[in-house]
Amino acid sequence: MTLTEGQRVRLSAETRLIDAVAPADGSSTAMAGITGSLSLAAGTEGAVERVVEHRHESDGVREYQRLASLLDAFGREMPAGSRRQLEEKVAALEPEWIAHQKRGLLVTVRVRFDNGFVLDDVDQGLFSPC
Question: How many angstroms separate the CA atoms of 95 and 12, rounded?
Fold first, then answer.
């Protein structure tokens, strides 16, 4: 399930965010090395502001797609030896292609919660539709 912009969502699990804290005036000596955390409770609701689909294709995946397309389009017309070599190359890349398909598409979202907080670049799996 891919979330959509404008969709109302609910945080599925308590989420703890940790980061270095710096004062607003830019002075860093008073708080050097201090880390702060913020927890967002499960059930916190908000609206999806942005959805980004990340397509992580390795060179092997792209090569599999290219060669499989070539085989599908011209395989019947190729000399038997060339076709056999191409089929072997496609077969050698197939495990990488299958793993890529199992991983699926990584989708990250930016959500503005009703309390004003914004959570950005997080996996859509952290949210469920309201």
Answer: 33
Sign of the torsion angle spanned by Cα atoms 75, 81, 84, 89: negative
Q: pLDDT averaged over the chain?
A: 89
- Res 25: pLDDT: 66
String of DSSP letters for 70-111: HHHHHGGGS-HHHHHHHHHHHHHHHHHHHHHHHH--EEEEEE
120-123-126 Cα angle (round to 5): 100
What's the mean pLDDT in 96-108?
87
* CA 27/CA 42 separation, integer angstroms: 35
| Residue for token pair 């009703």 | 114
Note the pTM of the prediction, 2 decimals.
0.60
Half-sphere exposure of 106 (CA within 13 A, CB side): 9
What does the pLDDT average to over 35-64? 91
- CA distance to 11, 32, 33, 102, per residue, from 19 (Å): 20, 12, 10, 33
